[in-house]
């Protein structure tokens, strides 16, 4: 399975394909939520923890839920994010946070062991890769600060 991080550059926003719907269907909503939950848990002890509301359990749980709702929606699941948060506006929603290329790479790296675990659980590598490719490219959109 090929989970490589592409070098990004500030203000370069590539076109991005959504993950294959087969990824969400094969993983299932419960396991998908656990994936995003686990990613946020690993953020807590990472170099990018300072960007997130790690000192407020309720705010952190809300952030976790919003991220899962969004990724489920983008992966072909129910439109939870639009219903509760409105328009996606991901660039604007990330604008208050100083996100540089290094932070992006850390954010992505934290997904790698979690996605490798899905492969060992029997999820098709090509589905996992399609989700990864989405994260790899779309994460470039939210970089707003020079390293
Ligand atoms: C594919 C890439 C990404 C997606 C799909 C994504 C998605 C989201 C979503 C849906 C939210 C919640 C927005 C809201 O409900 O208002 C969010 C919040 C946030 N994201 Fe991202 N994100 C991505 C990449 C990143 C990266 C690379 C970083 C930083 C390294 C980052 C940092 C944050 C922060 C700090 C918040 C605010 C947390 C809070 O609610 O306090 N995101 N992201």
TrEMBL record:
<feature type="binding site" description="distal binding residue">
    <location>
        <position position="66"/>
    </location>
    <ligand>
        <name>heme</name>
    </ligand>
</feature>
<dbReference type="GO" id="GO:0046872">
    <property type="term" value="F:metal ion binding"/>
</dbReference>
<protein>
    <submittedName>
        <fullName>Globin</fullName>
    </submittedName>
</protein>
<dbReference type="InterPro" id="IPR009050">
    <property type="entry name" value="Globin-like_sf"/>
</dbReference>
<dbReference type="Pfam" id="PF01152">
    <property type="entry name" value="Bac_globin"/>
</dbReference>
<keyword id="KW-0408">Iron</keyword>
<dbReference type="InterPro" id="IPR001486">
    <property type="entry name" value="Hemoglobin_trunc"/>
</dbReference>
<dbReference type="InterPro" id="IPR012292">
    <property type="entry name" value="Globin/Proto"/>
</dbReference>
<dbReference type="GO" id="GO:0019825">
    <property type="term" value="F:oxygen binding"/>
</dbReference>
<comment type="similarity">
    <text>Belongs to the truncated hemoglobin family. Group II subfamily.</text>
</comment>
<dbReference type="InterPro" id="IPR044203">
    <property type="entry name" value="GlbO/GLB3-like"/>
</dbReference>
<dbReference type="GO" id="GO:0005344">
    <property type="term" value="F:oxygen carrier activity"/>
</dbReference>
<keyword id="KW-0349">Heme</keyword>
<keyword id="KW-0813">Transport</keyword>
<keyword id="KW-0479">Metal-binding</keyword>
<dbReference type="GO" id="GO:0020037">
    <property type="term" value="F:heme binding"/>
</dbReference>
């Amino acid at each position: 399975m090929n989970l490589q991080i592409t070098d990004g550059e500030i203000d370069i926003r590539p076109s991005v394909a959504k993950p294959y719907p087969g990824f969400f269907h094969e993983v299932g909503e419960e396991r998908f939520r656990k994936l995003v939950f686990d990613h946020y848990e690993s953020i807590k002890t990472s170099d990018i923890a300072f960007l997130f509301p790690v000192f407020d359990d309720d705010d952190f749980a809300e952030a976790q839920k919003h991220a899962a709702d969004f990724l489920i929606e983008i992966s072909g699941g129910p439109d939870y994010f639009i219903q509760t948060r409105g328009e996606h506006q991901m660039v604007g929603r990330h604008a208050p946070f100083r996100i540089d290329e290094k932070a992006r790479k850390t954010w992505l790296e934290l997904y790698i062991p979690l996605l490798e675990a899905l492969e060992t659980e029997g999820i098709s590598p090509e589905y996992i890769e399609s989700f990864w490719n989405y994260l790899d490219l779309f994460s470039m959109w939210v970089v707003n600060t020079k390293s």
